[in-house]
Design brief:
The chain is α+β, with helices and mostly antiparallel strands and 354 residues long. The chain folds into 2 domains: 166 residues, D-amino Acid Aminotransferase, Chain A, domain 1 (2-Layer Sandwich); 164 residues, D-amino Acid Aminotransferase, subunit A, domain 2 (D-amino Acid Aminotransferase, Chain A, domain 2), CATH 3.20.10. Helix content is 24%, strand content 28%. The chain is built from 7 helices and 17 strands. Strands 1, 2, 3, 4, 5, 6, 7, 8 and 17 form a 9-stranded mixed β-sheet that branches. Strands 9, 10, 11, 12, 13, 14, 15 and 16 form an 8-stranded mixed β-sheet that branches. A hairpin with a 2-residue loop joins β11 and β12. The longest helix has 16 residues. It is globular, with a radius of gyration of 21 Å. 42% of the residues are buried. The structure holds pyridoxal-5'-phosphate (PLP). Pyridoxal-5'-phosphate binds next to α5.
């Protein structure tokens, strides 16, 4: 058992909080005063501490720098009127973190380190949690290998950290996506279901090519045939086709998003017809042409719901119905936001008070 009381806290001598403009938060550029660190060595976790946020040192031979052995999570926290921090589904993020750890040959992290580390960190940096509309605290737990050894073998020393970033909205406008049929993000048997660094580094070049053409994001397709829609890189993707909410069924090349799961649970709870199944490009293009696609959006923690206004395929841009007239995606965004902020009932017990 890990004695959580043993988390050592070294506080900063000078908080940066007074210099932060909470009315104009960029995404991912501002970090709170402290961070949580734990070390894995000799087969166990220890050295749990909270220290001032800042640069870290490691050996230049650390495997993470050479082989990209790193995993991460993304969660959001809010602050209610009684100053409680409300964190959305942290248990699910912890479970996914360990699924990623297993696939990447990294040690499992006990839940109490994940949650108590976060709890303690939030206690110290509570006043950094934004309360302004549209903003929240982005929580980034991550783990990487730090052995001083550049051979290839399962590594033995790891660092787990949590950093916190007060953030504003991720996408301020609806997004344009391009269906990718050449490059591959993830393939059957690979690491697509794990939240690991390499999935992102390999995606950047194809994403940049699409950005140069005016798109924000790619819609990835399966790596084998490039015929089926998978997800959108940092978000899962969903469509309202006629009256049905349709999303690609999970497989090992799709990241099992917690936002995706939350949207599906709410939709079913509201009695909407939901289908998790394969969606071919062919089906999607036909449905776009016939007007059957009423809504399309990405679902992920950073953006929550990102409305898609254009889907590009083979040089043609298919324009979707006006975002203002969409029903489900606004309704589910609003309800999720209200649940996360503690102002709506939480029928699934998603919100954890810290
Ligand atoms: C994190 C992530 C998502 C979204 O997952 P959430 O749990 O909803 O934040 C979707 N796709 C990929 C590739 C991701 O890394």
């Amino acid at each position: 058992m890990i004695d959580i009381q043993k988390i050592e806290v070294q506080k900063t001598s000078k908080s940066r909080l007074p210099g932060i403009d909470f009315t104009n938060l960029p995404f991912g550029k501002v970090y709170t005063d402290h961070m949580f660190v734990a070390d894995y060595k000799n087969g166990q976790w220890g050295n749990l501490k909270i220290v001032p946020y800042g640069p870290i040192t490691m050996s230049p031979a650390a495997p993470v720098l050479h082989y990209g052995q790193s995993i991460f999570e993304g969660m959001k926290g809010y602050r209610n009127a009684s100053n409680d921090a409300l964190v959305f589904r942290p248990h699910d993020n912890w479970e996914r973190f360990n699924r990623s750890a297993e696939r990447m040959c990294m040690p499992l992290l006990p839940e109490e380190i994940f949650t108590e580390g976060l709890q303690k960190l939030i206690e110290v940096d509570r006043h950094w949690i934004p309360t302004t509309e549209g903003s929240s605290l982005y929580i980034r737990p991550f783990m990487f290998s730090v052995d001083e050894f550049i051979g290839i073998r399962p590594f033995q020393e790891f660092t787990f950290m949590i950093i916190l970033s007060p953030v504003g909205t991720y996408y301020s406008t609806p997004v344009k996506v391009k269906i990718e049929t050449h490059y591959t993000r993830a393939i059957e048997g690979g690491t697509g279901f794990a939240k690991t660094g390499g999935n992102y580094s390999g995606s950047m070049y194809p994403a940049k090519l699409a950005q140069d053409k005016g798109y924000h994001q790619l819609l990835w397709t399966d790596g084998k045939t490039h015929e089926y829609i998978e997800e959108s890189g940092t978000m899962n993707v969903m469509f309202v086709i006629n009256d049905t909410l349709v999303t690609p069924a999970l497989n090992d090349s799709i990241l099992a998003g917690i936002t995706r799961d939350s949207v599906l649970k709410l939709a079913r709870h509201w009695g909407m017809k939901v289908e998790e199944r394969k969606i071919s490009i062919k089906e999607l293009i036909e449905a776009l042409k016939s007007g059957a696609v009423k809504e399309a959006f990405g679902a992920g923690t950073a953006a929550t719901i990102a409305h898609i206004e254009v889907i590009g395929h083979e040089g043609i841009d298919y324009k979707l119905p006006d975002v203002a007239n969409r029903v489900f995606s606004h309704k589910v965004y609003r309800e999720l936001d209200r649940i996360k902020r503690g102002v709506a009932a939480d029928p699934f017990g998603w919100v954890v008070k810290m």
